[in-house]
Structures are given as C-alpha cells and as structure tokens.
Amino acid sequence: xxxxxxxxxxxxxxxxxxxxxxxxxxxxxxxxxxxxxxxxxxxxxxxxxxxxxxxxxxxxxxxxxxxxxxx
Length: 71
What we know:
This protein is an all-beta fold. The protein is built from no helices and eleven strands.
C-alpha cells in the first residue's frame, strides 16, 4: 500500500484499518482515528505476518491492545 490515507475505520475485532497475515508493505501512508475492539487500532500484524512500514504516520488510533499497531 502506498500514498494512501486510512481514516475513521472500525473493526469489531483486530486491525481497524489493516489486518495482515501474510506480507504487507505500507509506505508513505497516513493511518488516523481508526479503532479496533481488541488488537491494533490501525494495524494488526498476526504472528505469521511480515510487516514493513516506512515514511508513514499513525495518529489518534485506539484499541484495547496496541493503539496504533499491534505486532
């Protein structure tokens, strides 16, 4: 994912904006004001997932565990 904005997304479980179980590259993105009930308000990266995040902003995200990112 490149040059994208994820804003005000919601999940009843994990990863308000993005949930990864494979390989995910996030570059030059803004993830703002997303929410998840459990893990990773903006991004949830599962134990088997590979995540590479560069030049990106996480702000105002909420979750029970890992407000912006749960890895």
